[in-house]
Amino acid sequence: MVAKALARTPCYNARMISVEEALERILARVGTLGEEQVPLTRALGRVLAHAVSSTLDLPPWPNSSMDGYALRSADATGASTKSPARLEIAGRIAAGHVADKPLTAGQAFRIFTGGPLPDGADSVIPQEEVTTEGTTLLVARPVKAGEFVRPRGEDMRAGESVLERGRLIGPAELGLLAALGHAQVRVVRKPRVGILSTGDEIVDLGGLLGPGQIPNSNTYSLTGQVIEAGGEPVPLGVAPDRLEEIEARFRWGLGCDLLISSAGVSVGEHDFVKAALEKLGAEQHLWLVNMRPGKPIAFATIPSTGKGALPVFALPGNPVSAMVTFELFVRPALRRLGGHARLQRPVVQARALAAIPNPGRRRGFLRVALTADESGGYGARLTGDQSSGILRSMVAADGLAVIPGDSTIAAGEMVPVILLREVR
To answer: Which residues is 191 bridged to in the sheet?
Structure first.
């Protein structure tokens, strides 16, 4: 009776909207969290809260890219095997040291990789290309100015913007920040995401399965997706199909930055998620989306004290539907909260290796395995039965093929595929 009554209210308009419209409504109501300072050693996988500019030239002086000899290119003009240039070896420079005198005409300095060029030198010749006779260097070819020299500021110049706001910090970014002397870095706070599974038939790990019950899998697949998207999962457990229990679990998660539930979002007699959200004062912004799997998905916001509206996603209960709707809607919202510059997965064009049918009027997001071909493109093949309850179809999937309703992509035709992981 509760679900039927709610279905008659304007808040639960049953008009089915497109994926694009749904995502637009979601992102219009999701902002970026505040920032915090962390040690550089804990910044891997975090998101920069501010752009970073170089405070110095790197390298700060011209240096050798090879073990060899620093010299003036003018002193090797016309040099050949028959008539090598003969230069005095007048010094030695290792990395971390500087020459104690400038180089003058007719001289060369022994130099090692990373060593600063002495004043007066403009080039380096590798050690394997020369011979020595005591303290005399024999150069048997002309040397060009700048050869085997890393110029000052080759990597970056003082004042140059080198990392943009919203960039995910990887190993290379850690190295660059360290090179600029950043022992601490300002990052966007990680979103804390409450995850709730609902249903009398769901039993969490470690519990005893009764008749008609199944193990809880959605909590764990969604936890993995949250972590992969840059969030910090907060388990809210499993709630039975009772309105007060679901409401209580949601209340536990009100201190989070985003809430996710799975199951109980349709219009059945035991679907109480939307009713629970209404009791918390939530405003619902969408419900039915033109897609398969995952048509019933609710997105709402709960007025929050001091933190702004709390986004809530009520996902379908079928495991594949929950994961696909997470990918299309929750992941972009979560990355917006976390300050990421790139919100969505990359999309590639793949050639169908066999027919990919999508019966029914809803747009399909079908699980496909991809293979790289010799031309650098991809071939796509369905992972098997596309039922929303077959979790193995997600295990085998490299991407989601996007197929219009009531259509079939014939073998050999191209199809857009949302990449879920790297294809090797």
So the answer is: none
Please report the domains of the chain, with CATH numbers, ordered by start residue.
Answer: 2-34+190-337 (3.40.980.10), 36-51+162-188 (3.90.105.10), 63-150 (2.170.190.11), 347-419 (2.40.340.10)
**Pick from 26-40, 85-99, 203-217, 361-375: least confident:** 203-217
Res 414: pLDDT: 97
Query: Nearest 5 degrees, angle CA 275-CA 277-CA 278?
Result: 65
Dihedral angle computed from the Cα positions of residues 151, 155, 161 and 166, in that order, rounded to the nearest 10 degrees = 180
CB 220 within 8 A of CB 232: no
Spatial distance between the Cα atoms of 193 and 95, rounded to a whole number of angstroms: 49
Average pLDDT over the chain reads: 92
Q: How many CB atoms lie within 10 A of CB 206?
A: 7
DSSP for 29-59, please give it: T-----EEEEEGGG-TT-BBSS-EE-SS-BS
Distance between start and end Cα atoms, the chain:
52
SS3 397: coil
Q: Which residues contact 39 (CB under 8 A, 6 or more apart)?
A: 183, 184
Question: What confidence tier does 203 reach under pLDDT thresholds 50, 70, 90?
Answer: confident
Using alpha carbons, list the distances in angstroms from residue 58 to 154, 179, 187: 6, 8, 24
Contact 110/92 with Cβ under 8 angstroms? yes
Q: For residue 373, what pLDDT is reported? A: 84
pTM: 0.85
Can you read off the two tokens belonging to residue 386? Answer: 């596309």
In eight-state DSSP terms, residue 300 is E
As beta bridge partners, residue 71 has 108, 123
- The count of other CB atoms within 10 Å of the CB of residue 376 is 6
Closest CA to 66 of 25, 95, 41: 95
**Structural contact between residues 185 and 38, judged by C-beta atoms closer than 8 angstroms:** yes
DSSP 174: H
Place of tokens 């109501």: 29
Percentage of the chain beyond pLDDT 70 is 95
Which residues share a beta bridge with 196? 261
| Residue among 15, 337, 13 at smallest CA distance from 194 | 337
Biggest distance spanned by C-alpha atoms of the chain: 102
